[in-house]
């Protein structure tokens, strides 16, 4: 069967220690999942249920590739995050079984046009153009849980031009990975290829063309993303 327009390759990520790739279906993101970051954004971090937004799968930027400074913003912010890769789908997944659905973990940047997000919040409008724009999701290679395990405590850190901007521990997430999978799978069916960006610690701030972002979650992986001119 032919297609009336050229068929595209599914976006994908490399898998650590393998020549195989992980095809990406959807990218879900958790909002305000570290208390100190919720406070710096002017929100109350008490355990309100987690909320989610999305980025298109083709917003992926491969490790080491430049991210061009996007249009229509003067405030491009970094958010370093642990990324969960779903290997087995499901709906209404109980917390106790959630980790059985995880293929592995990576490190990503939830790049944000903060000025557009603040304007959207003020008017009660959607965040899509603030969060889900082109090349808004640099994500590094995935470490398979089968060989690397499931991290529940690990330093998470982002450097810009060598200076530490964000530093925390994934143990400080308000909603753990199993809790997040349980909540999200009650809202949508999860499927193999889905990614979940699990929120960012405090210290979000702007970057400019020429800056180099280098992120890591200890024992999980790294992401290196230069910011290129518009
Ligand atoms: Mn985020």
Q: How much of the sequence is in beta strands?
A: 25-35%
How many domains? The number is: 1
CATH level-3 fold name: Fumarylacetoacetate hydrolase, domain 2
Distinct small molecules: manganese (II) ion
Computed over alpha carbons, the radius of gyration is: 17 Å
Number of helices: 5
Can you put this structure into words, describing what you see?
- By secondary structure, the chain is α+β, with helices and mostly antiparallel strands.
- It has a single domain, classed as Fumarylacetoacetase-like, C-terminal domain (Fumarylacetoacetate hydrolase, domain 2), CATH 3.90.850.
- It has five helices and 17 strands.
- The strands form five sheets. It has a six-stranded mixed sheet. Strands 6-17-16-13-14 form a five-stranded mixed sheet, with no helix packed on it. A two-stranded antiparallel sheet has the order 1-2.
- Strand 13 (155-160) and strand 14 (163-169) form a beta hairpin.
- The longest helix has 11 residues, at 177-187.
- The chain is globular, with a radius of gyration of 17 Å.
- The model has no long low-confidence stretch (mean pLDDT 96).
- It binds manganese (II) ion (MN).
- Manganese (II) ion is lined by residues 29, 79, 81, 110, 197, 199-200.
């Amino acid at each position: 069967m032919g297609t009336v327009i050229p068929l595209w390759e599914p976006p994908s990520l490399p898998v650590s220690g393998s020549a195989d790739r992980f095809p990406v279906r959807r990218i879900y993101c958790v909002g305000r999942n570290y208390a100190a970051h919720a406070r710096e954004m002017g929100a109350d971090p008490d355990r309100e249920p987690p909320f989610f937004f999305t980025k298109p799968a083709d917003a992926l930027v491969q490790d080491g590739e430049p991210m061009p400074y996007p249009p229509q913003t003067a405030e491009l912010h970094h958010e370093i995050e642990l990324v969960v890769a779903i290997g087995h789908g499901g709906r209404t997944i109980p917390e106790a079984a959630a980790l059985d659905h995880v293929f592995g973990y990576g490190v990503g940047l939830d790049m944000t046009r903060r000025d557009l997000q603040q304007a959207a919040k003020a008017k009660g409008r959607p965040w899509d153009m603030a969060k889900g724009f082109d090349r808004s999701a640099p994500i590094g290679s995935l470490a398979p849980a089968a060989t690397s395990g499931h991290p529940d405590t690990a330093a998470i850190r982002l450097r810009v031009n060598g200076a530490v901007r964000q530093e925390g521990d994934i143990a400080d997430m308000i909603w753990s990975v199993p809790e997040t999978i349980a909540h999200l799978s009650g809202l949508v069916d999860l499927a193999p290829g889905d990614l979940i960006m699990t929120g960012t610690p405090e210290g979000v701030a702007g970057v400019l063309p020429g800056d180099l972002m280098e992120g890591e979650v200890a024992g999980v992986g790294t992401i290196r993303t230069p910011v290129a001119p518009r």
